Every structure is written in structure tokens, then in C-alpha cells.
Amino acid sequence: MLADELLPTLPAAVASHTLQSLIAGLPAPVPDTPERRSARNSFAIAVIADMKPVDAAEAALAVQSFLDGAHAMECFRLSDQPSLDLNAVLRYRACAIKLMRRADKARRTLLQVQALRPRLQAQVRPAVRQEAPRPAAATLVTDREAEARRQRAARIRALDLRVIETPPTRH
Question: What is the pLDDT along the chain (171 residues), one digit of tens a residue?
Fold first, then answer.
């Protein structure tokens, strides 16, 4: 099956690169057999497809989230080996916890980007009708900066500060 059929929300080149990166980054299954590899790959692709990335940036976040989670599970599996000493077990588990946090952060970031998409598209559409198109990210940053400046100016006015001039001092 072609990459663009597996990830229909992505352009064909992005889908192909996404799947290559995903498969290359996965830990080996245990035991490492062709059937296990096929099942592992199918599962990974299904999870990425369920995340519904629509561009390269979202695809990268989806892959990062999945791979960090997969490697965290591998670290947990390695920490359960009976021949390990306590320090090795603790190192594997600490690594797994860090990877799970990274996976969660990447997933949250992806969800935030996807939640912003309709608002960004709504901001871009009126701008296209009225004037030359601005990039959606620039529109969002500009609006945020303008609001931050308005709030900062209001806080300064609320302080009602007076400037007191002091005579210059000699050193």
C-alpha cells in the first residue's frame, strides 16, 4: 500500500517521509520476527493515521510522540530483566519516565496546533478577501503581540507613576 493511501491527510511526499522515519525509529520487537515487525509497523501507522496530521509539522509531532512512547515502553521492558542490578533498573525507569513526558508533551502540542487550525483558517480567509494574504502564524503572533502591548500599557497607566528628575551626581 502506498504512503499517501495510509496517511491520506498528508501530501504524498510528506506521508512517505513520515512513514520511513516512523518505521526506522521503532525499537525492534521481541522476538524479532517478520510477523512481529509487520504487526508493529501496522500498529504504528494506524496510530499516526488516527492523529490526523495535515502537514509536515504535525506529522513530525505525531511521529515524535509515538516514537518517544515506544522507546519508553522498551525502557520499561528492559528494566524488568531479572539479571539487572538496582542502579540499572533505576536508570532504565528514569529514562522511560523522561521519554513518556516527552511523548505526552509532543502529543499535547499536536493537539493544541490542531485545535488552533480552525481559528487560524478563519483569520486567514477574511484577510484574503480584503488585502494581500498574511501567513496564519504571523496573524496570530501579531494579534497576541498587540493584545500584550495593550495590557502592558493599561498596567502602566494604572500605576500612575510620576517621573522625578534628580540632579546629576559627581563621582
Answer: 567 688 888 888 899 999 999 999 999 999 999 999 999 999 999 999 999 999 999 999 999 999 999 999 999 999 999 999 999 999 999 999 999 999 999 999 999 999 988 777 777 665 555 555 555 555 555 777 878 888 877 777 777 665 556 666 676
The C-alpha atoms of residue 84 and residue 35 are separated, in whole angstroms, by 29
Nearest to 106 by CA among 168, 157, 62: 62
Kindly tell me the burial class for residue 113, based on how many C-beta atoms sit within 10 Å of its own C-beta (0-12, 13-18, 19 or more).
middle
CA distances from 146 to 108, 117, 143, 169 (A): 26, 20, 5, 39
